[in-house]
Amino acid sequence: MTTTVVRVGDPERERTAARLGQAFTQGYLSMPEYETRLGRAFEAQTVVALGDLVADLPVERIRRQDPQRRAARQAAARRGARIHLGVYLAVSVLMVAIWLVTAMSVGQWYFWPVWPIFGWGIGVVSHMLAPKNYLR
C-alpha cells in the first residue's frame, strides 16, 4: 500500500498560521516556539507537515470562540460604527453651515456639500452594515 502525499497551498498554510496565532495568544505556545512553528508552516509542502505543527495543540479548544469575547467584539464594532456615524453627521452639518454662510455672502447657491456627504455616506452605510455581516 502506498501513501499519497498531498501538497498544500497558501490557503492551507495561512489557516495553519492562524491556528498557531490563536494558540500563541491563548498561551499554548511560547514566543520562540510560535516563531519556529510559523516559519515551518510557511515552508511546509505537504498536509502531513502542516498537521505535525498543530498535532500537540488542543485544536478544537483553540477554534472555539469564547461567547464573552465574541460579544465584546460585536459591541466594539457597533460602538465604532456609531462613532463613525456621529462624526459623519457632525461634519455634514458643518459643511452645510459653511455652504450656507458662503452662499448667502456670495450669492452662489450651488449645493456642493452633496458630493462629500454622499461619498462619505456610502462608507458610513457599509460600516453600519459590517458588524451584522462579519461578526456572526
Explain how this protein is built.
InterPro entries: 2TM_dom, DUF1707_SHOCT-like. Keywords: Membrane, Transmembrane, Transmembrane helix. By secondary structure, the chain is mostly helical. 76% of the residues lie in helices and 0% in strands. It contains six helices and no strands. It has helices at 10-25, 31-43, 47-54, 59-63, 67-106, 114-134. The longest helix has 40 residues, at 67-106. The two termini are 44 Å apart. The mean pLDDT is 87.
Structure summarized in a few sentences:
InterPro entries: 2TM_dom (IPR025698), DUF1707_SHOCT-like (IPR012551). The chain has 136 residues and is mainly alpha-helical.
Tell how many strands the DSSP assignment holds: 0
Instruction: Quickly count the helices.
Output: 6
The amount of helix comes to over 70%
Which structural category fits the helices and strands? mainly alpha
Q: For the report, how would you describe the main beta sheet? A: none
Rg from alpha-carbon coordinates: 25 Å
Q: How far from one another are the termini?
A: 44 Å
> What is the N-to-C succession of helices and strands?
HHHHHH
* Low-pLDDT sequence parts: none
**Rounded average pLDDT:** 87
Strand content: under 5%
Shape: elongated
